[in-house]
Amino acid sequence: MTQSSFVTHEVFNQSPPFEEVDLYALDRPLLGAVAAFGGGAAAEELSEFGSLWGSAEMAERGRVANANLPKLHAFDARGNRRDEIEYHPVYHELMAQSAEAGIHNSTWDAQGKAVGGAAEVIRAAKFYMAAQIETGHLCPITMTRASVAALAAEPGLLAKTIPVIGTRKYDPSFSPWWNKGGMTLGMGMTEKQGGTDVRSNTTRATREADAYRITGHKWFMSAPMSDAFLVLAQAEGGLTCFFMPRFLPDGSVNAIHFQRLKDKLGNRSNASSEVEFLRAYAVRVGEEGKGVRTILQMVQLTRQDCAIASAGLMRSGLVHALHHSRHRRVFEKRLADQPLTQAVLADMALQVEGSVAVVMRLCRAFDRAGNDLSEAAYMRLLTPAVKYWVCKSAPAFLYEAMECLGGNGYVEEGILARHYREAPVNAIWEGSGNVMCLDVLRALAREPEVSASVLQALSSECKGLPGTAEALELIGAAIRRKDSEHVARLAVETLALLAATAALNKVSPQQAELFALTRLATGHTGLYGAVDLSDEDIRVLLTRALP
Ligand SMILES: Cc1cc2nc3c(=O)[nH]c(=O)nc-3n(C[C@H](O)[C@H](O)[C@H](O)COP(=O)(O)OP(=O)(O)OC[C@H]3O[C@@H](n4cnc5c(N)ncnc54)[C@H](O)[C@@H]3O)c2cc1C
């Protein structure tokens, strides 16, 4: 293929950009998972979304938003505090598109209650596609959506904020939330001395009339131009959750002073601040001393989104690798026809099949948890396990995807270098890997019978598939050990693989068999292509991945 002509040479044998595609219609594993878990009726809406986000224009927005980093304006020219973040206009366009599609609120009704039906699955499909194009802006989108679960602890506050959270408008103006067409929320838990261990928070809250004044700091507080933050601070009754708006009720600016923005490996379109609060105004959310319990309602949902986003990043890596290999010729043969490339790509496709299936299965549990105890139990046990496995597999996966493009994969003009730098953060924030494993152990220990019923259900959904009986035995033995933390990663990864096999069995039994064979019956090394798949298996997997 000749693409352009120079005096010295012609450009040929380069793959065209993977753009102007429908990210939904092209993705059979996603289509299958959405249908299997209740969202099939939204196919048209999802296809429209997939075409928009698969356009060259959106790809360019993603690139530009990450090439033009947010800037902190701590002071104005006269030395007054300003505490504003300036973003490139394309960042605001990305936010507006995600808000218009309801990614920040579509799982809530007008009262802030879970919509149910297939709202989680449909929203997750959008989140998954948007993550393939630009992941940084999804940080405020996910936090806004998730904040509603914590605000539920303070019904009066929820009733006031939900009409503003509930619009599909994005309003970037720096003005009080109650005057805005739409609002976003952030979250401040992590301090210098402890992120996982939030009980070590030193930020203090003092009661004044019907509100509180908060003094202290947060070492990481992302999306600093949010209209309000859910913040943890020590009140008289212990660690408590607060709603801290950018403006006081009298319209003056709250004492939220940004110190600097983090210089991050990835996630660069999104600002993450270091911040100090100097008697900042806030109102309580939930009871004093119940801060962790309150904010965990929010964190449960952001953990779910970390897994969805990481699966989306892997999907993007896979399609770019596959697309390239179908255009690039090496030794007079397309890369896609080279058996070794086929083995690598098919194994990667299988990883994405399992990831998207289990992520959508988890979202169905979120959809049904309010009315179904077994789905609530699935959600409790599998959220940390799925977050652990999907988010931790993404960086290595994206490295392999990059390598499929050779040198082109490693340079910044392509999207894969950006995806690669983005991938680790989903495993680190919202509870890092070990913390997720400990959370699974906690669920197993606190409610052994409930957890046993989830394992039992997974077992029957995987019946007859290779390696699943042994996987169950391994998990059981690990839990019973006195030193279960030593083997927690082994047990949790196995649990996630079992859940992925069960979910995939609902989407496509043929792929579930292959997944179980390569991931449960024989241990997967984590290096792609080191599996023995037949020509037919490879053909089916790669056609499903990209027809
Ligand atoms: C880009 C970015 C944006 C962020 N944005 C926000 C934000 O908006 N709001 C916010 O509150 N925070 C934010 N964070 C902070 C993030 O949530 C924390 O970094 C994370 O929770 C880990 O906390 P830590 O950094 O204090 O590490 P630590 O808590 O010190 O953990 C270090 C390591 O120890 C492991 N570990 C912890 N406990 C145990 C244990 N008992 N056994 C074994 N291992 C253990 C952890 O898994 C981790 O790998 C952000 C972080 C990043 C990177």
- Which class best fits the helix and strand makeup? alpha+beta
| Range of helix content | 40-55%
Mean pLDDT value: 97
Q: Domain count, please report it.
A: 2
The number of strands is 13
- The CATH topology label of the largest domain is Butyryl-CoA Dehydrogenase, subunit A, domain 3
The hetero compounds bound to this protein are: flavin-adenine dinucleotide
Supply Rg: 23 Å
Count of separate DSSP helical elements: 18
Task: Give structural notes.
By secondary structure, the protein is an alpha+beta fold. Helices cover 51% and strands 14% of the residues. The strands form four sheets. Strands 5, 6, 7, 8, 9, 10 and 11 form a seven-stranded mixed β-sheet that branches. Strand 1 (2-5) and strand 2 form a beta hairpin. It is globular. The mean pLDDT is 97. Bound molecules: flavin-adenine dinucleotide. Flavin-adenine dinucleotide (FAD) binds at residues 186-190, 194-197, 220-222, 264, 267, 272, 425, 428-429, 432-435, 438.
Helix-strand blueprint:
Layout: E1 2-5, E2 10-12, H1 28-36, H2 43-53, H3 56-67, E3 71-75, E4 81-86, H4 89-100, H5 119-131, H6 138-151, H7 155-165, E5 185-188, E6 204-208, E7 211-222, E8 228-235, E9 238-245, E10 256-261, E11 272-285, H8 291-327, E12 329-330, E13 333-334, H9 339-368, H10 373-404, H11 416-422, H12 424-428, H13 433-446, H14 448-461, H15 468-480, H16 488-507, H17 509-521, H18 535-545
